[in-house]
Amino acid sequence: MSRSERDLVTALRDELAAIDPSRSCDRIAEADGLGPGPVGREPSVARLAVRLRHAAERAAPAPFDWADAGDHCRAAWLRGRFLARGSLSLAGGRTHLEFVIPPDEAPGLVARLADIGLSASWRLRRGRGVVTSKSGEAVGTFLRRIGATGALLEVEARQVSRALRGELNRVLNAESANLQRAVSAAGRQLDAIAALDADGRLAMQPPIVRLVADARRATPEASLADLAERLGAHRSAVQRALERVERLALDPAGGHAEGGRERRTARRRRPTHRAGHAVA
Fold first, then answer.
1. Confidence (pTM)
2. For residue 69, what pLDDT is reported?
């Protein structure tokens, strides 16, 4: 995770720690979520833990009961649990929520997260329970529920920016590849046209082939669509003409042979008249 991403996560935790629950039940629920142990290295979270624990002790509350708690109390408890045992990773453009807790607590936390619509799973890692959620949308819902609205907007803005950069790079790469293919094809076509012109075969080709060859020489950078528009022809006709030029350039005798065949075909199609017969 980069420095800017770590700074964003720190800002998110500071934002959550600055929330001062107005309901006493929420303060009790968040204190229960923080738990009795250490709560991390952020001074803001440490100060919150001291403040809420004192408030809970003065209120002499009954133990927090998730099943009977309202949505606001559940959100407060989850906020406390995240600050005490949760972490958020934004590395590689992925949002990854994780809780490291005692193994016997892991199944219950997964169930509580499911109650608020957050899919999560758990596993054992070095003797500790690890609850994770890797769904960016679900993690966004979780952060919104526990009050991290400001930092969440920044997270979402970065995700959108990263997605746009990825799409722009994809389009640019595709355009670059298409341009490279077009340049290579135009180079081959110009070489083929020059070869056919040098040995006289270009002059023996059908009119459309000669027209396309002249247009290609005049505008080497033009696409097939541009050439077709320039000549008032179909794109497919331009493509076939250029393919014919490249094919003939690879066969030194091809142009002469094809030209000869075309002339012989024309002679066979010429009408003949027998002597002594009148033509109507």
1. 0.61
2. 93
Q: How far is CA 134 from CA 94, 118, 122, 180, in A?
A: 8, 10, 12, 39
Domain with 191 in it: 169-256
**Which residue spans within the chain are E strands per DSSP?**
86-89, 96-101, 121-125, 128-133
- Residue keyed to tokens 């923080």: 34
DSSP structure string for 48-60: HHHHHHHHHHHH-
| Lowest mean pLDDT segment, chosen from 7-11, 83-87, 134-138, 253-257 | 253-257
Task: Specify the DSSP class assigned to residue 233.
Answer: -
Q: How many domains does the chain have?
A: 2
Residue 208 and residue 240 in one domain: yes
Residue 262 within a domain? no
How far does the chain reach from its first CA to its final CA, in angstroms? 94
DSSP collapsed to 3 states, 180-210: HHHHHHHHHHHHHHHHHHHCCCHHHCCHHHH
